[in-house]
Structures are given as structure tokens and as C-alpha cells.
From TrEMBL:
Top-rank taxon, per record: Bacteria
Pfam families given in the database record: DUF1203 (PF06718)
Basic and acidic residues compositional bias, start-end: 22-31
Ranges for region Disordered: 1-36
Protein name per its UniProtKB record: DUF1203 domain-containing protein
Organism: Shimia gijangensis
Amino acid sequence: MLHYHPIPTEQARAYQADEGDAYGHRPERSTSDGSGNPCRHCLSYIPKGADMLVFAHRPFGHTQPYAETGPVFLCATRCSAPDNPAIRPEIMKNTADLLLRGYDSDDRIVYGTGEVVACADVELRAERILDHPKVAYVHVRSAANNCYRLKIDRP
């Protein structure tokens, strides 16, 4: 069984309160055009016309050479993380190819685990990556833009 993890609620609330992002900048405010702006907290697409935030996010606890930072979207108003981490979230359905990459318990990339996969194959490929003895979790990113989507692990 896989678990899908959004950015933590306390981190989402900090961004929604205009606290600094990974570079110390306040999130930019924008309006969703409805063309696929995935919120990294509720793991749903932000509806057309809804306010959203754009900011630099680093999904790692500390800086180090493998701690990538990139732009992500978040609902500007409070949203809720999914109740059940075992259910495939909306932002993992009907999307373009995704980049999967395995990381060890020290947040380092495990070489040989990165691959671009079709959306329909994410679970199968994530399971295979998680079978690697050094992999603790998998990051899912946009294959086209390399933007962080979410983290997958096993309970």
C-alpha cells in the first residue's frame, strides 16, 4: 500500500499567512486560470477564478546538495489535507507524465531510481522504486516543469 503526502498543514498555513518561502520571499498571489494548478496541500486542482499562491518550495527539512527548490501552487484560502493518505489524490489523476525519484533516509537521491512515467503507471513504478533497499520515499514531480507534486511512501 502507498501513502500520498501533501506539504504539511503547518507549512501550508505559514504560506497562506504570507510567511516567507524557501528563499524568504512572501508568496505571490494570483488567480487560477483553471488549466491545472495543483494545490500541494489539498492535492486538488485549484478551481478557475480562485485565489492561489505561487512560491518557492523546498520539500526537505534542511539544505544540502540534493534539496531541490522550485515553484509550486497552493490555495490562497485554508484548504484541508486529504483525510486518507492511501487514496490516490486528484492531482495524480489524468495528468501528463510524471517524474518519480527515490530518496534515502538522509534525503539524498538514490541514483538509478529516477524515471519519467505515465500517470497510469505511477503506483506500479513507485512500488518498484520503494523496493530498493536504500529508498525511504519517492518524490513525484512534473515531468515537463520539474515542479514538486507530493511525496509517496509506505506506512
